[in-house]
Amino acid sequence: MKLPFELRESLVIAVDDYLETVNDDPDASTLADALVRCLEQAAEDADYDTDDILGEIEEEAELEEPLQDTLEYEFTKNDEIELTGEDVVAVVERLIGILWHRDGMDEDSLDSYGDDDVDDDDDEDDGTGF
């Protein structure tokens, strides 16, 4: 699923705010509920058409259960997750297969968040063993 990068930024901030101000140790169900609410708010903040973002996500990801139930299950089985906006959003990215894009990016340059941060020069062998 392709979503605007601005939505990701808003989502990370919203989740961080929730964890810092409302509940810093939520159970899986509470975290899933909060994440869904944060996702809807982030979509609105990023001026994304929010009419049915949850339905779109569920359809695109071919989820068998509603997004909130799927997230709750993921958070239950992955209780070692760091409770930060970045780590919680990373679970969603992995689960749904989100590709983030910025305005002006064409289809060929669309990539998942983080891949563009990889320095390809580190993979070269210069013979020094380092």
Q: What can you see in these coordinates?
A:
- The protein is mainly alpha-helical and 130 residues long.
- It has one domain (2-104).
- Helices cover 51% and strands 5% of the residues.
- The chain has 5 helices and 2 strands.
- Strands 1-2 form a two-stranded parallel ribbon.
- The longest helix has 18 residues, at 28-45.
- The radius of gyration is 17 Å and the shape is globular.
Major sheet size, sense and barrel closure? 2 strands, parallel
What's the arrangement of strands in the largest beta sheet?
A: 1-2
The low-confidence parts are: 105-130
DSSP, total strands: 2
Distance between the first and last residues' Cα: 38 Å
In short:
By secondary structure, the protein is mainly alpha-helical. Helices cover about 50% and strands about 5% of the residues. Helix 1 packs across helix 5 and helix 2 crosses helix 4 (about 65-75).
